[in-house]
Every structure is written in structure tokens, then in C-alpha cells.
Amino acid sequence: MRPPDEPMAPLELTYVTAPRCRLCEHGWSVLTELQGRFAVSVREVDLLSDEGRHLVATSRVAFPPALFVGEDLLAHGRLSARALECELADLGVGSFATDGQG
After folding, report:
1. 16-43 burial, b for 16+ CB within 10 Å, e for fewer?
2. Predicted model pTM
3. Mapping DSSP to helix (H, G, I), strand (E, B) and coil, where does residue 43 land?
4. What is the pLDDT of residues 6-62, one digit of tens each?
């Protein structure tokens, strides 16, 4: 069992993106904000890579971006910070202390 003062390992998210994708750029701003508030790390995968094609095909995502936990689709299209906060809470991802805003 982990001691209470030991930080949790971040949850790794895989972010499948395409070049020149405005929704992907917006998603990065959302994910950057969430990384400052939740114990997550984000790894980018190109849609045209073998891994990107596999993830998109198995989850039947119609267009990028797509966000995964392992091979499970978490979100796709225009990412919503509020919706992702709820998803992360449902997954039991720890949040960092805030100054009371948000």
C-alpha cells in the first residue's frame, strides 16, 4: 500500500492528433490546463501512425482528436474541460490543491 504522503503516479492519456487540426490545437490547451490540476500525463500519437490508426479503428472514431486511457476512448472531437474533469474524477484520478477558483 502507498503511504498517504507519497504522490500518485500520473494516469497516462494518449492523445491522437492530425496535422493542421484546429480541434487538436484546442484540445491541447484543455489538456495543458488539466495537467496543471490533475495527476495525468499526455502522450501525443499521430493519427497516421500504426498506433494512431489502430486506436481510431478499434474505437470507431470518425475524426480527430481522440483521447484514450489505454485503448479505452475517453473523449473525441472538441474536448471539454468540464466533461474531462468529470471523467477523471470517475476514474479516481487525484487532483492538485487549487486556490479555490474554478
Report:
1. bbbeeeeebeebeebbeebeeebebebe
2. 0.84
3. strand
4. 556 889 999 999 999 999 999 999 999 999 999 999 999 999 999 999 999 999 998
CATH 3.40.30.10 fits 11-90, yes or no: yes
Say if strands 40-46 and 66-69 run parallel, antiparallel, or are unpaired: unpaired
**24 contacts: CB under 8 Å, gap ≥ 6:** 15, 17, 18, 64, 65
User: Domain-by-domain residue ranges, the chain?
Assistant: 11-90
Which residues lie across from 11 on neighbouring strands? 40
- Alpha-carbon span 71 to 13, nearest angstrom: 10
Q: How far is residue 99's CA from residue 57's CA, in Å, rounded to a whole number?
A: 41
